[in-house]
Each structure stands twice: as structure tokens, then as C-alpha cells.
Design brief:
Nucleotidyltransferase, domain 5; alpha/beta; homodimer; 17% strand; ATPase_BadF (chains A, B); 2 domains; EC 2.7.1.59 (chains A, B); N-acetylglucosamine kinase activity (chains A, B)
Chain lengths: 357, 357
């Protein structure tokens, strides 16, 4: 993405066709994950026509993509620049200016406290006119909304590069588990799975562990000739996504019968199910009798069902054993659209509309 | 340490008293660990008076300390600068110039392959006159030599911020285990122990794990009010040493009866013993009957016996069960002196002296 100076990024607003967008309003939804940031622009529908009553796919006017906007990973100035640029690009593509925006909801990874929310709200307030409603959430909340069409109820489980479980009770109480990064033990994440696989390769090589198919598979994928070279490989670039990209090798080895790879996936399933159970338990999503129904929204590359060793399915089986009322949901829209639906719901709620129906 | 320009660092050599050190020779030993780099300057003793026959403490002429010189951690230019500066400072303090140096041995963490050795040898060759003998080893080799007074035989176990096990057979064969950094699973290190403790605190907080004394102990030590703040704390500064500094809290909680802290230490003991056993096994240090005698040199803060929950002692007990001939050694000199003794031994060997007696 181009680098702009001092507000130059918004210059398209002065150049826009005076006829474009006049009288219409839009909402923005943003999903800022560990790897990329996506912003969508959607038309503001009246409260009488909620988005989930639309017959077909949702009307996305424009979509823009940028890099990581997690301030923990890239630092505050870079996170702020990325957010501003991806928002400007989505608006510019849609042909609307900032004055047409009624509400914007950002779901950003790394938002873990009111302080984190306040910081981003301050950045946004500098950018947007005062009438624009601003909402900032953890990116898991946008992912939940992408599966529930904007309703904040149930639990989402994300496992991509990182992992997190996040839930809302009907009364608005919220809870989360995991989502704390590799240092603090997110072992169900893509990073966690791949790091365990790399560890198994090193242990097989230095005599601490049994031989495993992972050695040939991973060395071949990385173009390395010996496990000794893994040390240099891991330190030359500490990005979590680069390590998480090895998950398909672990799944393939497990499918081919490798016991070490299989155990790594079984452990990851247990960790992921545990994080969902902790949230369900704290919010009592299953009701007092334990059989209540609630959605479990499944998001992220690790949980996608494209292999015969299906991590997401195993996690769901593990959850269903304890909570038979859990209803697995695979979202039909992306988290950025979930964030836009949240913005609409929050806006309708503030205006006294029936946003949660 | 001051920053010098273009060789200015060596200006002290032109200013030295012409009488100082004339006719004498010195050797240099350097220990470059994950946290700091230490260089010592010692007089060159004749081969007829090996250092380990000296009655009292070894004659260290000068000692200099600098920061981390692991190129994996700080990058090549910074690692090179640190090495050059700490060597110059040790020489400057001793009153000798580079022309008086006969041999220098560097034990540097992050030296994991011939390529790593060659890189550092190239840097040193730029600095030192051609007659100076240069040796580059992993820092674990210098630590082993510090316990064996320069003889390369047996196994060293280091657990400080990082951990590694490194051994030599009498015939010169060498082997190592672990020492690969946190990503690749050095769970017996100070970093590994502390990261497990932080994970336990987060799991207790979000409902995934049992309550533990570690929560109050660690939050109090870090001046934080909630486990939620640990996420920001870990990402604000990714240095391993900062996390490893929490090991005393884990030991205190284990001593006070906390089961979670106890299990973390038991797991670390098992990992550390496993890394020693892998090296002993590969080198057959225990001889063919399994009862042969060999030194196990124990180095690093995690293995120091200053608590009633004594990690080092537990590791040794675990090793002795399998290899009764293992002889635990706590070095009386620091690894930098071990590196200097190695330099002397290598030099005597090249000159046909009896360096390994």
C-alpha cells in the first residue's frame, strides 16, 4: 500500500464526483487480524430491513486489504497508519467520502482492555466527523458476528495463526479464553501446532525424541538440508504467520499415520475445546440444565474442513460431549462484514431500533 | 559501553607505555551468552606449567563485560561490534596490545554450524595480526571447559535464560541437544519455566486451568493488577531474559506447596535430564557397560543450589539413575576463563604440547 503524508490519504474526497453518494449513507466494518486487515463498505439499510432478512449475498460496496494492524505486533504508529489507510482505500473505492459514513465498527486483534479500545477510538476520532458512531472490539467479536449475522450471542472459536475463544450471553456479559499469543501458551493456534512440530523435528534429530515423518516433510517444504538449519530459520524472521504456515505438513503427516504429528493435533484439539468450554461455563451459555442451545462459530484456517484429519470437527465433537446444545456455525460472510453488521446493530440499538431480533 | 568509529577503539595501543607487557604474551577467553558477553585476559603460561596445576585462583589480568553477542538475537553488525569492543576493553585494561596476544578462544551462543564459526573467524581475522591463533566455539563448550579446566571431555548442562546440553567424547566426537531457543521448545530453560508459569496464570484466570499461587506472586513481582495485563507486558519487550527472571517466583511457589508450580519444575527437570541423556547416549560417555565415569558440568542460574527446591540436584538424581558413573561438577571459574583455558589447550596441541593431560 502507498505511503501518504499528512492527510494526503483523504485527497480523493475533494476529487470525488459531486453527484456520487449524495443523500446515501454507508457503514464500515473492519477486521484486523494477526496477518491482515480488511475493511468493507456497505450501504446503510433502514431498521425495517435488517441485513439478515436480505435474500441473497450482502451488498458490499467496496473492500480493501492491508497488513497487520495489531499494535502488539507492529507497534502503535504502524497499526494506526494501517487502519487509516485501509479505511481510506475502502471509502475511496466505494465512491463515498467520510461525511457519508454513519457508523464504523473495528474488530482488531490485540484489543484486550478498555485502554486498548480508548486508544483506537482516539485515533478514529481524529479522522471522522463527530456524527460518525465509532465502535472498537476484539477481532473475535467481529468473527462471532459474522456467524450470527450481527447478533452478539454464543461463542466463537478462532484458530488461524493465533487462537482465541470469545463469547456473549444474551444479557450482554462477555468472556474470553486464550488469545494471549505464543509466549503465554496458545497451543491450539496454527503457530502452536507448527512450533510443536518443529520441536519434534529437533528432538528427533538430537536424540531426545522418536523419529517422525515431520522431519522430511518440513525440511522439504522449507528447502533445508538438516534440522540444524531450523535454528537459523526460526530466528531470521520471527513472524508467527511464517511458522503457522507449516500446519498443512503436520496434518498430512498425521493423515499418513505419523504418531507424533497425530499427538500434536490431538493436543491442539484438546486445547481448543478447553478454551470454548471455559467460556461456555463462565457465561452459562448452556443454560441451567446444561442442554441449552447456543451457536459455536468456527473461524480460521486451522478449523477449515479441507482434510480427512479435520481439526474443527474433532473440536466440535469434544464440545458436544459436554454441551449437546452447541450448534456449530461456519460463517457465510467474512469477519469484516460481521464487523459492519455489528456497527449497524449498535447504531439501531442507540436509535431505539430492534437490533437484536 | 562507548561507541567508537573506524578502529578508534584500538587507539589505546598507540598510547600504551612502551615498557608495559614487553616480551610477555597473553591469551584471551570470551564467553558470549544470551544475556551478556565477558572477555578475560590471562598470561600465557609455558606448557610445563598448565593452569590446572596452579595452586590458587587463576591469574586473570583483566576482565570486561558487554551485552548480548548472539547474532540470532541482535543481528550481525551489533554482535560484531559487541565482540570487538569487549575484546578491546579487556586488552586495554590489561595494558597489552593485540601484538601480545598468542591465542583467543570465543565461546559464543548462536554458533551452531561451521558457517557461524567461519563468519566470526572472518571478523576476528580483520582485527588480529596473522600470528594470533583464533578459535570459535559454541558458548557451551567454554562452559564445559570451565568445569574441566580446559579438557574437552564429558557433558555440560547449561540452564540460564536458555538451555543446552553439549558433550565431547575422549576421541573428539561431539554432540549437543536442545539449545535451540524458545520457539523450538527449550522447556528446561529459565525462559521455558517462566513462560509455563505465565501460561498457568492466564489459564487460571480465563477458566482453563486450576487456581495457583503463581498468580499473586507474579502479578505482585511485575506490579500488575490483573492477569489481563500480562498480554501487554509480554509484548512490550520480547527479551527472553526479562521473562526468565521470573524463575525465582516459580521456585518459591513450588516450595510453598503449589502443585502447578511444582509440576512446571518437575517437567523442566525431566526436559533437562533428557537433553543430557541424549548427549551421553550418542557419545557413549558411560562406556560400553553403562557404568563408565564422566564429568557433568552444571552451569547457569536455574541450576544453582540456593533453594530447597533444587532443580540442579533433581536433574543430577535423574541422570544418576541411568548413568551411575556421572560426576557432577560445579565450575570454580567462569566460562570466559574456560574459554581462555581452551585457547591455551588448543595452542599447546598445535605446538605438540600435552594439552589434554
Amino acid at each position: 500500500m502507498k505511503k501518504y503524508k499528512n492527510g494526503e490519504i483523504w485527497r480523493f474526497e475533494k476529487e470525488e464526483d459531486p453527484g456520487t453518494g449524495t443523500g446515501s449513507s454507508v457503514i464500515l466494518g473492519l477486521d484486523g487480524g494477526t496477518t491482515s486487515t480488511i475493511c468493507v463498505c456497505m450501504p446503510l439499510l433502514p431498521s425495517s430491513v435488517p441485513y439478515h432478512h436480505l435474500p441473497d449475498s450482502l451488498p458490499v460496496l467496496a473492500r480493501a486489504v492491508a497488513g497487520c494492524s495489531n499494535h502488539n505486533s507492529v507497534g502503535e504508529p504502524a497499526a494506526r497508519d494501517t487502519l487509516e489507510q485501509v479505511i481510506a482505500e475502502a471509502l475511496s473505492k466505494s465512491g463515498f467520502s467520510r461525511s457519508a459514513v454513519r457508523a464504523i465498527c473495528l474488530g482488531v486483534s490485540g484489543v484486550n482492555s478498555p485502554t486498548d479500545q480508548e486508544r483506537i477510538l482516539t485515533w478514529l476520532r481524529d479522522i471522522f466527523p463527530f456524527h460518525v458512531k465509532l465502535y472498537v472490539q476484539n477481532d473475535a467479536v467481529a468473527a462471532l458476528a459474522s456467524g450470527t449475522m450481527g447478533k452478539l450471542h454464543g461463542c466463537v472459536l478462532i484458530s488461524g495463526t493465533g487462537c482465541i475463544s470469545y463469547g456473549f450471553a444474551e444479557d450482554g456479559r462477555e468472556a474470553r479464553a486464550a488469545g494471549v499469543g505464543p509466549v503465554l501458551g496458545d497451543w491450539g493456534s496454527g503457530y502452536g501446532i507448527a512450533a510443536q512440530a518443529l520441536t519434534a523435528v529437533v528432538k528427533a534429530h538430537d536424540g531426545r525424541g522418536p523419529q517422525t515423518m515431520l522431519t522430511n516433510s518440513i525440511l522439504h517444504t522449507l528447502g533445508l538440508s538438516s534440522p540444524d538449519e531450523l535454528i537459523g530459520w526460526t530466528y531470521v524472521d520471527p513472524s508467527w504467520a511464517r511458522i503457522a504456515a507449516l500446519v498443512p505438513e503436520v496434518v498430512s503427516c498425521a493423515e499418513a499415520g505419523d504418531q507424533i504429528a497425530n499427538k500434536i493435533l490431538v493436543d491442539a484439539v484438546r486445547e481448543l475445546a478447553l478454551s470454548v468450554k471455559a467460556v461456555v461455563q463462565r457465561l452459562q451459555l448452556c443454560g441451567e440444565d446444561g442442554n441449552g442451545s447456543f451457536p459455536i462459530v468456527m473461524v480460521g484456517g486451522v478449523l477449515e474442513a479441507n482434510k480427512s484429519w479435520d481439526i474443527g470437527k474433532e473440536v466440535i465433537n469434544c464440545i458436544l460431549e459436554e454441551y449437546p446444545g452447541a450448534c456449530p456455525v461456519r460463517p457465510k460472510v467474512e469477519p469484516a462484514v460481521g464487523a459492519a453488521l455489528l456497527a449497524w446493530n449498535f447504531l439501531m440499538k442507540e436509535q431505539g431500533g430492534n437490533c437484536h431480533s
